Amino acid sequence: MTAYLLNLATLATIFGILAASLNVLIGYAGIFSVAHAVFFGVGAYAGAQVALNLVPDVLLASLAGGLLSGLLSLCLALPALRVRGEYFVAASLGLQMLAVTVFSEAHSLTGGHGGLVGIPPASLLGIDVSSPWRFLAVCVGALTLSLVSIAILMRGGFGRGLMAIRDSESAAEALGKNVPALKTIAVAIGCSLAGVAGTLFAFQLAFINVESFTLEQSVLLMAMVIIGGAGTLLGPLVGTLLLLLLPAVLSFIPFIPATEIGTVQQLVYGLAMTLLMIFRPAGLAAPSTGRR
């Protein structure tokens, strides 16, 4: 039971980083992407390749995963600069489908459908951090650093500029905001953090394949942000805990057959989303008196 709870806590911190990174796009910049799992996957594959072929240092691998995801974020930033709203959602959907195909077919880099196996245990500056407690501490540290960085950025001029674009892009332009630059930087930050989360995910599982980076994963991440409260610092964490703990709770209910847990989970998700949109449209962590 202890090992199970430690694994669940570690996954919660990793997905907390991932949801917080998507919140930079959705909550602060108003960029509704359904391709965030792409950059999660890029970071996971990059970090795994560093661990397999160079050294299993979690810091070096995370830097590689975050940097590569940030560079490839231009694939998302370019359509974000040209289109918005439902048109951008469609463009990001296309990117998601294309990436899944690449992940499946690039056998030399991703292992194809078989994935990358045998990812070595993590170390940090020469110290073994592969034990469950130590790796959880590493993930908690990464989550804390991510949240502090986001909080500092969003309370400054950069964050105010992003939120101005979110609320009215034309008004932000009229006020002299450099909309293309702000959007590009926001996408790069969000995607880089997703890459770091992907690297931690690869070390945690010691195995990754394309099934973890599909459209369903992107939709789940968006649900975490929206349910918790987009545009709030702690909202994505609330959504992450809710959507990760729910399957665990359902698995302990004796009268639900194991084969039906997935179906019940989808019903509960749908009901929760419906009730939230009616009674708490801004999310669980958002102030009840306003949207944010």
UniProtKB/TrEMBL annotation:
Entry keywords, A to Z: Cell membrane, Membrane, Transmembrane, Transmembrane helix
GO CC terms: plasma membrane
Major site of localization recorded for this protein: membrane
CDD domains for this protein: TM_PBP1_LivM_like (cd06581)
Transmembrane segments: 6-26, 33-52, 58-80, 87-104, 133-153, 185-207, 219-246, 267-286
A Pfam family recorded for this sequence: BPD_transp_2
InterPro entries referenced in this protein's UniProt entry, alphabetically: ABC_transp_permease, LivM-like
Compartment(s) of residence: Cell membrane
Protein name in the entry: Branched-chain amino acid ABC transporter permease
Molecular function in Gene Ontology: branched-chain amino acid transmembrane transporter activity
Organism: Methylobacterium terricola
Membrane topology: Multi-pass membrane protein
